[in-house]
Design goal:
152 residues, mainly alpha, 4 helices
Amino acid sequence: MTANRGRKRREAPENKIDVKKMEERFDHAFLVTLGIFALFFLLVFIPVVGPILILILIPYVAGYHGGKFVNRKDGILVAVLAGFIWTLLEIWIFYSLLSSLDLAVNPPGIYTGLDWTVIILIFLTNIMFCIMGVLYSPRKFSEHDSNDDKEP
């Protein structure tokens, strides 16, 4: 008992995390990411480079701008969700266009192994480049709002 006399007890700092503010930032980042995807979708109609732009550049730019509003951990979640949802929409739009032009090789509902391989590659490239954009984006929130990005 006498050894602790005169010493002040150290208290752990309070980590007050505003959940509502974090949710608003997450929603904002998610909408910015999907908005950029939607804004640049018409680039697909540029001959030769359109599909390359929509599979590589657009997901990176969308992840970069959406990742500014959240920390890295939440940014990766935003990138995966936005990339997944956007890829579903992208595949649905392409399939609808091909079906309306009678250029679809397979009847609806029947996919070959190559079709599934292409679909999986589109999912992977969109999600991967969206995550890369999030990881390289600067953050717009203060470091006091989250402990995820602090170095030990």
